[in-house]
Specification:
It is found in: Cell membrane. The protein has 297 residues and is of the alpha+beta class. It contains eleven helices and five strands; from the N terminus they run αβαβββαβαααααααα. The chain folds into two domains: 4-112, no CATH class; 158-295, no CATH class. The protein has a five-stranded mixed beta sheet.
Length: 297
């Protein structure tokens, strides 16, 4: 990585991401080699290994490679799309880090200055804000405006923007759960009616209402659990197929975030769901009298 001595000595070193390395050095042997860096306008650069116009291009030595972030993965999808369509001209954005001192000394840059802090401490954030206000008051020409944003603020704004969509999806989910719950309850009622004779025989042999009630509730919960297993497996397989299709065919960056919690929550909900919609049919079966159940046809 770039260190303080690189900045102090204005060294012509760069750190690139894996996507940039794959474009310029397919053998992944970029460390120690040089690239030619040219900045035409602030924020944009043209990079190549071979160039005849050496007067406008600076040679920089690669000292490190970092993993590609979302931007790099998105550009890789764009690159694959152009290659598959046999396009002649490909314009891509690559990620290249260089010491700020070397950038300011050798390239034309914009007047905008960006200073970034990363902290989880509220007191430190308040101190940074006071320091920025003080610096702004002392240097109005160089520092005209600023924007201080923390992660919680970004998340809160995103939640507020997505709140109407979330409420709409929750309402749809509740309606679907109620409809499917009524269907599950109907199935349980049919199951209880078909086994009324069985219930009478068990009661005649000494089974209590609680035992009959527990039997049907456990059956309903097991049925919901099995349905959850099937639905989760089908969902994972479907999402993986969609992800592969989007990445390889449409070249759209789409990734799933599978965690243990995301998998366990549907199972937990399904058990509660099976219990809630099995109580009434199970209670109906437990209330049946022995005489009525043995005469039932």
């Amino acid at each position: 990585m770039i260190n303080s001595s690189d900045v102090a000595q204005n060294r012509n070193v760069v750190v690139i991401d894996e996507f940039t390395e794959s474009l310029l050095f397919p053998k992944k042997d970029s460390i120690g080699k040089q690239i030619r860096l040219k900045v035409d306008i602030p924020g944009f650069s043209n990079n190549s290994i071979n160039s005849d116009n050496a007067s406008e291009i600076k040679k920089c030595t690669i000292i490190g490679v970092v993993k590609s972030g979302y931007h790099g993965k998105k550009e890789r999808m764009k690159y694959n799309k152009y290659i598959s369509n046999l396009k002649e001209t490909i314009n891509l954005n690559t990620v290249i880090y260089t010491p700020k001192s070397y950038l300011l000394q050798n390239f034309e840059t914009s007047d905008q200055k960006i200073i970034a802090w990363s902290t989880n401490d509220i007191k430190a954030m308040q101190l940074i804000k006071k320091s920025i206000e003080l610096f702004k008051n002392q240097s109005l020409k160089e520092f005209t405006s600023y924007d201080l944003v923390d992660k919680d603020t970004v998340l809160r704004q995103a939640k507020e923007n997505l709140e109407p969509i979330r409420i709409f999806l929750v309402l749809i989910m509740v309606v679907l759960l109620i409809i499917s719950g009524i269907n599950a309850m109907s199935i349980m009622f049919f199951s209880v009616k078909e086994r009324i004779n069985e219930i009478g025989i068990k009661k005649a042999l000494g089974a209590t209402k609680i035992e009959i009630l527990n039997q049907f509730i456990i059956e309903g919960m097991m049925m919901a659990f099995i349905a959850a297993v099937i639905s989760v497996l089908l969902s994972i397989v479907t999402v993986l197929i969609v992800q592969k299709y989007l990445n390889e065919s449409l070249f759209i960056l789409f990734e799933i975030n599978l965690t243990v919690l995301n998998i366990l929550i549907p199972f937990f909900i399904s058990i509660i769901y099976g219990f809630a919609f099995s109580v009434i049919p199970s209670y109906y079966g437990a209330k049946i009298k022995v005489t009525d159940s043995l005469r039932f046809e």
